[in-house]
Amino acid sequence: MLVSFICSLSGLIFIITLYVIYKSKLKFNNAKSKIYKYMLIVLFVLGFIIIISELMCQNEINIKLADALMRAHWYGVVALSIMFYFYIIAFISNLECKKVVDVVLTNRFTKITTIILGILFIVSFFIPCTLRINDKYNYIPGSLGLYIQAIMIFIVLMIFVYYIRFNKGGEKKLDRTVVFGLTLIFSIFLFFQFAVREVSFYGIAFISVMYFLYATSENPDLEMISNLKKINEEIIASSNAKTDIILNMSHDIRSPMNAIVNYSAELAEIKDLDKESIKFNIDNILVAGKNLLNILDDILEMSGNNQHVGIDIYNMNELVADLRNITESRIGNKPIKLELNVDKSLPNLLIGNAAKMYRILMNILSNSAKYTDVGKISLDITGTRIDNDNIMLHIKVSDTGFGIKDEDKPKVFSEFVRLKDATSQKIEGTGLGIANTKKNVEVLGGKIWFDSTYGAGTTFYVDLPQKICVSKTLEEYNNEKEIGSKELLDCSNLTALIVDDNRINTNITMRLLKRYGFNVDCAYNGNECINKVKNGAKYDIIFLDLMMNELSGEKVLNVLRYLNKQYDVPPIVALTANVLSGVREVYLKKGFDEYIAKPIDIKELDRVINLFFKGKKE
Question: What is the reported pLDDT for 296?
């Protein structure tokens, strides 16, 4: 009896010590750790009960109460075994839920086993057991002891069944040491319990289990070390990714810049170029410039700040024509046939975000041009009328390129990811285009998906809702006078002021305005602009750059608005390289009358000039 009492007391002290250590540390706030805490508490209560009952039996004090305590002890062992089962389920499933009930409701398997274990626990109250006192030594043999052993065997079997069924082929590897170690401990003690029925091994079994759990999965210090390791790996991966991004962007920016510099140098240095060569150089400079803008747009969209849905009226015919020119330049000398098939019954003028629409189609077509060496790239656009004012565009881009491996398909819409074939073949690209395309499609309320066969090609599908501006179809439009033949507005009796501290930009803007016949004046900083207005210079419109060194465009605007009380200040148009969607509305709220993004788009400039002067010019 003394040996049994000392063992029970030692176990109780051990559990108390483990509980104090566990409580003193920062614990995990999840169901698994809560179950572990409850197991410690139950084990402490069971240890306390067994000591009290042993003392009462030793001194033959209130045997009936001692019998009741021993029964309660064994019912607690059943409860503890069931709690152990749910802890292992939470561990195998890698559950991060906070409520214990969520572990019970994990899946159909856990629900069924919960019902079975609940029934087994209730039945245990009706299994007979006897309390024997023999030479100051007490133990409980009989049916209840065998019944509890059967429950434990059932629990161990269910753990193995669950592990095999739900961990097989899982994406996250499980630390098998914990699962197999725990079930091995249980199995060993069950074996000894069958072999030596006169001695109870359950206490030492559960104490061993609790220590094993603390040492392997419940020690916050171990988790902290694991988290630090993960953080370190993430930092290294992030650093490597950042290096790759910079290298990719540097390469992709230098490629069009190289074309711009070299073709421009040839125009500047070689005096005897014929008209065909000059046009060839200029066309290539224009294409390279647009490619460079596409790369910069990708980088801006990556920031996640370009999610504003602007509304524009855009011309489907012109959009497709621009796509053809850029895509052909991306294809270069590759033996690839480009087919653009647009349903002629589609409305020519649609209402939507023209910039995002262009980016979506351009990114997918550019992607096809990158990953296709020979064959065909085709763009098909059709539409289904939603009602009289809305249409659902159905876009399909197919290519005969490399195709996508099955293991790479989940990565297609990820940022900074280029497929293995792209990496090995030095294909250009930041790895942002398709990721940004998905974002833009979702912002516009559409959906995007793809089909691909490795080695045969890829097809992207996009459905986008758009509003109809006019019902005139592409076919009807093509039979009318081309937009390109429209005459520019005559502004020969108007004066424009350009405020920009970059003389190259000033000269470009001046040349564009002179096409309309404007009398153009220039100011190369904000103070010069303010002084010109104060000195009585009269202007019909001011084009004001926002990013100037001495005085920013916004500060100049504030001064001019103040001067408007004494001087006649004309409409002020903001010029900026900030092209994020939504900035136009921001600048209008700040007091600008209009906004034009750099580099200046001729169509956008024409829109602004007609906005202020069409029908108003004397």
Answer: 72
Distance between CA atoms of residues 572 and 591, nearest Å: 9
- Alpha carbon 574 to chain centroid distance? 34
What's the confidence (pLDDT) of residue 174?
Answer: 46
Question: What sign results for the dihedral spanned by CA atoms 217, 218, 221, 224?
Answer: positive
Cα→Cα distances 497→107, 540, 572, 614, Å: 72, 8, 9, 19
**Mean per-residue pLDDT over the chain, rounded:** 78
Exposure b/e, 322-354, CB count within 10 A at least 16 = b: ebeebbebbbeeeebebeeebeeebbbbbbbbb
End-to-end CA distance of the chain: 117
Burial state string for 150-180 with b = 16 or more CB within 10 A and e = fewer than 16: ebbebbbebbeebbeebbeeeeeeeeeebbe
Q: Which two tokens stand for residue 435?
A: 């990721």
| Residue 355, both tokens | 């910039």
Joined together, the tokens standing for residue 289 give 């410039």
Q: Which amino acid, one-letter code, is at 173?
A: K
Phi-psi region of 480 (alpha: psi -120 to 50; beta: other; left: phi over 0): beta
- SS3 at position 312: strand
**CA 77 to each of CA 50, 120, 132: distance values in angstroms, whole numbers, following the listed order:** 11, 13, 19
Cα separation, 209 vs 183, in Å, equals: 9
Residue 553 vs residue 33, higher pLDDT: 553
Asked whether the beta carbons of 364 and 327 are under 8 A apart, the reply is no
- Alpha carbon separation from 506 to 100, 521, 533, 577 (Å, rounded): 69, 10, 18, 14
CB of 547 closer than 8 Å to CB of 577: yes
pTM listed for this prediction: 0.46
Question: Helix crossing, 31-58 with 63-93: angle to 10°?
Answer: 160
pLDDT in tens, 309-326: 556 678 888 788 878 877
Rg over CA atoms, the chain: 39
Are 327 and 365 contacting, i.e. CB atoms less than 8 angstroms apart? yes
Q: Please tell me whether the peptide bond between 599 and the residue prior to it is cis, using omega within 30 degrees of 0.
A: yes
Q: Is 28 exposed, middle or buried (0-12, 13-18, 19+ CB in 10 A)?
A: middle
pLDDT score of 438 more than 90: no
- Binning the chain into helix, strand and coil, the percentages to the nearest 5 are 60, 15, 30
Cα–Cα distance measured from residue 329 to residue 327, given in angstroms and rounded to the nearest whole number: 5
CB 488 within 8 A of CB 500: no
286's tokens: 């224009």
Nearest to 598 by CA among 614, 583, 609: 583
Q: What pLDDT shows up at residue 349?
A: 84
CB 454 within 8 A of CB 403: yes
Is residue 165 within 8 A of residue 109, CB to CB? The reply is yes
